[in-house]
Amino acid sequence: MRKLLLIVLTSFISLTNFFCLAGNESPTSTSSQYHSNSYFPGDLVYSSTECYEIQHVLGEGAFGKVYAVKNSEGKKFALKCYKLDPRFDMSLYSDPEREFERGQLLDHPNIIKSVEFFIYTNPEGESTLNLVLQYVEGNTVNRTPFAALNREEGISALLQVHSVFSYALLTGFIYLDLHPDNVMISSETDVMVIDLASFFSIAEISTFVKKTSYLSTSRYHSITQKLAQIRRETQIQNPTKNVKVSEEKLQRFFLHHPELYNEIQQLQQSRKSKIANYLISLSSKTTSPTHFSYIERFLGNYYLDKITDLCVTILRKSTITREERMDWRVRLKKISWNYQEDIDEGKIQPVHVYLDQLSRL
Question: Can you give the pTM of this predicted structure?
Answer without folding.
Answer: 0.73
